[in-house]
tetrahydrofolate synthase (Deinococcus gobiensis), 400 residues
Amino acid sequence: MRPGLERVHALLAALGRPQDRFRAILVGGTNGKGSTAATLASVLRAAGERTGLFTSPHLTRFSERFVVDGQELPAGQVLAALGRVRPLAETYEASFFEVVTALGCLLFAEAEVQTAVMEVGLGGRLDATNALDPVLSLLTNVGLDHTAILGDTVQAIAAEKAGILRAGRPALTGASPDLWPVLDGAGAELWAAAREWHWEAESLGWEGHAVEIQTPAGDLSFRTPLLGRHGAGNAALAAAAALRLGLPAGAVREGAAGTRWPGRLERLPWRGGQVLLDGAHNPDGAQAVAAALADLGTGPLPLIFGAAEDKDLEGVAAALRPLASRVILTRAALSPRAAEPHTLARLFPGLPLTLTRTPEEALGALPPGAQALACGSLYLVGELRPLLLGEVGEARERWQ
């Protein structure tokens, strides 16, 4: 990982500037980027636009990162395009994420998408996606994550993330009021939640939320299947952005209702019970999961937990401990960054612990009929999900 835009600019130029062949929307923030991007892409699709959706990391398959009109691009097509990108990437010594970003731009241009919704990778100012020229930028929220790279205060991190905003162009955020001065400093035409636009949501239990928004572009009521108040807020941000783009209310309702975002408060059956998957990997994300389960009336349940060793493990565990009746510790087998299970035991004092070596062993430690939660890492979720679905996952080492 080497922050900077010089290499990705050179790589895109060598590919013929594919990013100029569609309009781009950048979605940044600490948490909720993926569900916000997925909702907005679904709305654009419902409005009749040919739409690309670029997200990261993938859960199970590399090609999940490249979606056109709701369909993951075929692996063969992705690999063929990657074969064309690779020699240039080696010439410019591009990083993994720079290669993936350029690949997404090439795939979307050749698929003739009209609009691509691009999830920012890390930060904003120096992220590879910021080589694009967005017509609209979204910032979901700002929390403490990747502090060694982005800064150790939310103000410093907000300044980095504000790099995706463009002076004189529209932008929206759900960030807290104390960060508005930092974001306003970018000079964008910023609509902030609770300032220019407002939202409220009513829980529909496991069916999602009924959401209402009031914006300068109009008011709207719609439904989203996203769980948790944070999910409703992400859907609200995407809907407000859609109205600002001038998309019709009917498309917003249809697209929001049809949003699918796997691995985030996703329930899957397992041996007569079910496992609730979530990729929460920082304190804010873990707190959002805890609040969502409290709203849903879920009591303490077995917790399958694994995490990257470079995360705020104490903060994540503190939010999850009250949810757990027992803890099954494991690690994502394909992630070199994953913490060893025995090093995580100290995070859950007083709770019954089971240590396992792989996600498959962790599932095997659940009693039949159990209702369980699995979280702490998107890589862990990405390895658990195909096991729950009876699919075959990728067998590649994963860093990003």
Notes: The longest strand covers residues 209-215. Residues 264-389 form a domain with the Protein-Tyrosine Phosphatase; Chain A fold (CATH 3.90.190.20). The radius of gyration is 20 Å.
